[in-house]
Design brief:
The protein has 240 residues and is α/β, with parallel strands linked by helices. It has helices at residues 34-45, 57-65, 90-104, 127-155, 176-196, and strands at residues 25-29, 49-54, 79-84, 109-112, 158-163, 201-206, 230-232, 237-239. The protein has a single domain, classed as NAD(P)-binding Rossmann-like Domain (Rossmann fold). The protein starts with 24 loop residues before the first strand and ends with a strand.
């Protein structure tokens, strides 16, 4: 079992050794940029075999191509494999999960990270924009949970990590649709946490206040299995 106190960062944390997540299978949606890219690199640096899934395959491939070494120059034990994925397609998400399970026999870590945002006055949002953000930020997470959670229950272990936002705990007028969706992700995560004890599966939420620039190696990621907010790293991360 993976330690619930484990945290990952892109800042040379000495705990990131190859054996920490050696043999673990992970999927990161939206892994081609930003927080998703930072998550992907950190997981591979810790020894996991990671599927970097993104609607932009070229972006995912760029992340995968950088998998050979850690920021400190040491070799990476884990692997990164890029795949195209539109998280609004439930069958496609289920297919990525099934492929990992067929290949490795288990899925240990499911990062439902893909997301979009709209900014501006709420009254100027079109219905198409409302539907798009609901499809990606809410249904995309639901599709990941629906695909991964039954598998984790069957294998009696696993972690689901949903990327929310500090906007999922507070309100801001110029990102109304985004705040709505991230509140939904926080609610889903907390509800899954309540039910996870009986299954030995765990659900966590990361709530970044600022994602950092993954391309410069400054993005950070982490999770802490606690029912309250705790700080992680130095760039505005907290976790559920």
């Amino acid at each position: 079992m993976i330690s619930p106190r484990l945290s990952l960062s892109m800042t040379g944390d000495r705990r990131l050794r190859g054996e920490v997540l050696g043999g673990r299978q992970a999927i990161v949606t939206g892994g081609g940029s930003g927080i998703g890219a930072a998550l992907t690199r950190a997981l591979a640096a810790a020894g996991a075999d990671v599927v970097c899934a993104d609607i932009d395959l070229a972006a995912a491939q760029r992340v995968a191509s950088q998998a050979g070494t850690r920021p400190d120059g040491r070799s990476v034990v884990g692997t990164i494999r890029a795949v195209p994925l539109d998280v609004t397609d439930a069958d496609a998400v289920a297919g990525v999960v099934a492929e990992v399970v067929d290949r490795a026999g288990h899925l240990d870590l499911m990062f439902n990270n893909a997301g979009i945002t709209w900014g501006g006055p709420t009254e100027q949002l079109t219905l198409e924009q409302w539907n798009a953000i609901i499809d990606v930020n809410i249904r995309g997470v639901v599709h990941g949970v629906a695909a991964a959670y039954p598998q984790m229950i069957a294998q009696r272990h696993g972690h689901i990590i949903n990327t929310a936002s500090m906007g999922g705990l507070t309100a801001a007028g110029l990102i109304t649709s985004y705040v709505m969706t991230k509140h939904a992700v926080v609610g889903l995560t907390l509800a899954l946490r309540r039910g996870g004890g009986r299954t030995r599966c765990r659900c966590h939420g990361d709530l970044p206040g600022r994602g950092g620039d993954a391309d410069s190696g400054q993005g950070q990621c982490g999770w802490i299995c606690r029912p309250r907010l705790l700080p992680v790293g130095t760039r505005g991360f907290a976790c559920l």
